[in-house]
Amino acid sequence: MSQLSQRHLLGIKDITKKDIELIFETADNFKDVINRPIKKVPSLRDVTIANVFFENSTRTRLSFELAQKRLSADIVNFSASTSSVKKGETLLDTVNNILAMKVDMIVMRHASPGAPHYLAKHIKANIVNAGDGTHEHPTQALLDAYSIREKLGSVEGKKVAIIGDILHSRVALSNIFALQKLGAKVMVCGPPTLLPKYIANLGVQIEYDVEKALQWCDVANVLRIQLERQQIKYFPSLREYSLYYGINKKMLDNLKKPIVVMHPGPINRGVELSSDAADSDHAIILEQVENGVAIRMAVMYLLAEKVN
Ligand code: CP
Questions:
Q1: Same domain, residue pair 168 and 242
Q2: Given this model, what pLDDT does residue 306 score?
Q3: Which of 6, 8, 73, 219 is 20 to 30 Å apart from 128, CA to CA?
């Protein structure tokens, strides 16, 4: 029986192509499970998991929780906004108190890049990074790559353009690592102010013209403008951003070739993606969400095998 090379999932950077393939093969089985009338298996019956969210989430949090329920795990949910973090408790004290209640695995979202890596040095439980600031969002990248594999048969050799606010995006970095490990060609596209300088060192193509990026790619992964992380103005206005970088259905139809449109959500409709594009046959946005449950089931199932 194959196992993951790591006991935590902190980032895609830390895992191997073999790990990703194992997660995908395991997710294939769980995708069958969640499409059955009885969607539950007893795989994690004796495992207790805490979902520790210091930042807002809809998809990731619900997807992890459903995945845990489908695997029959015991779960507790922690939300920083209603917790004793508000009274000054540290991250480590908070997590150690949760672990004292005999919790085996922590799924954590935190605004600080590196927060799950810090925890991994201090606690014994398995950790899954559900997004750490602008750093990584590994399960999002796994479900994105899995969705490409499902739609196009494989990821190897495919051209994927990641379009939008790359600078503030943890999804972009994890996607670049995952896609490159699986043999895809990756382009990033956006206004120069939203493309970080280090990106050129990651072996990706850089494009400032969204029409050229769309012509080049098989898959356009469109990212949200993360206004909540922008302390200064990176472009004159949302209206101008939408004019130069917004993608609509007419642009997609005019390409006269197949193109798959993805978005990790939440979508700013009418900014990076028009409603007619988001809801078109080009888009696989809700398939991504469905696949997220199977991918997260696979990740937690495989990590639970590596409990101390
Ligand atoms: N894609 C994603 O991480 O969405 P949420 O912020 O809603 O979890």
A1: yes
A2: 62
A3: 219
Radius of gyration (C-alpha) of the chain in whole angstroms: 19
User: What is the residue range of 142's domain?
Assistant: 138-286
Q: Give the per-residue pLDDT at 1.
A: 62
Whether residue 138 has a cis bond before it, omega within 30° of 0:
no
Q: Is 228 in the pocket of ligand 1 (CB under 6 A)?
A: no
Span 228-243, pLDDT tens digits: 777 767 787 889 999 9
Amino acid 80: pLDDT: 87
Q: Is the CB of 192 under 6 A from ligand 1?
A: no
Both 130 and 212 in a single domain? no
- Ligand 1 contact, 57 CB (< 6 A): yes
CA–centroid distance, 260 to ligand 1, in Å, is: 20
> Ligand 1: which residue has its CA nearest to atom 6?
57
* Closest CA to ligand 1's atom 3: 60
Residue 232 has a pLDDT of 67
- Ligand 1 lined by 264 (C-beta under 6 Å): yes
The number of distinct structural domains making up the chain is 2
Ligand 1 pocket member 58 (CB < 6 A): yes
- On whether both 266 and 300 belong to a single domain, the answer is no
In a domain, 3, yes or no: no
The average pLDDT across 117-145 equals: 97
Mean pLDDT for the stretch of residues 148-171: 97
Q: In what order do the strands lie in the sheet with 205-207?
A: 205-207, 185-189, 159-163, 219-222, 260-262
- Pick from 52, 108, 119: nearest CA to 81: 52
Closest atom, ligand 1, to C-alpha of 55 = 6
Residue 7 lies in a domain: no
pLDDT the model gives residue 279: 98
Q: Is the pLDDT of residue 72 over 50?
A: yes
- Among 185, 224, 187, 225, residue whose Cα is nearest residue 207: 187
Place of tokens 């078109």: 280
pTM of the shown model: 0.95
* CATH number of residue 239's parent domain: 3.40.50.1370
